[in-house]
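To illustrate the input format used throughout this study, we show a single complete record. The first block contains the structure-token representation of the backbone; no residue identities are included at this stage. The design step must infer an amino acid for every position from geometry alone.
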């Protein structure tokens, strides 16, 4: 009989270690998916595909309704662009002023590195805008 107590304690310990492994493995997989892969699978779907799924599968609109909705969307996008287009020049001016202020405090050795860094940021922004166009104004690098 004295051997059953250590045996049951060992079984409990094995079960606890197993459960901790499952929990930590699940948490690690979740964090790995968010941090490394960075996006959910459906988030990579182009916006037009999301719209097609909504129109065709979810709402089951008729072809005539789909055309009408597309016209509404196009008009809305045009209105957004007209709303934001006056701000484009101001936004670019503010960005350039801030870059000039930052360049003013940099050493001559740092300035080319800063310019290269800002160029990479602008290229990344352009690449994201091309991949996922938004209905608002077109961004400039």
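Output of the design step:
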């Amino acid at each position: 009989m004295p051997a059953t107590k250590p045996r049951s304690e060992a079984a409990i310990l094995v079960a606890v270690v197993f459960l901790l492994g499952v929990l930590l493995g699940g948490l690690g997989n979740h964090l790995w998916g968010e941090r490394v892969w960075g996006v959910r699978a459906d988030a990579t779907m182009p916006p037009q595909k999301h719209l097609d799924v909504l129109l065709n599968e979810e709402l089951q609109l008729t072809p005539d309704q789909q055309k009408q909705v597309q016209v509404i969307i196009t008009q809305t996008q045009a209105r957004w662009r007209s709303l934001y287009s006056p701000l484009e020049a101001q936004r670019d001016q503010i960005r350039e002023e801030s870059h000039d202020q930052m360049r003013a405090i940099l050493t001559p050795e740092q300035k080319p590195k800063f310019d290269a860094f800002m160029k990479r940021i602008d290229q990344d922004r352009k690449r994201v805008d091309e991949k996922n166009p938004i209905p608002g104004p077109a961004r400039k690098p």
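Structural context for interpreting the output: The chain has a mean pLDDT of 79. The helical segments are 4-37, 47-58, 63-104, 110-131.
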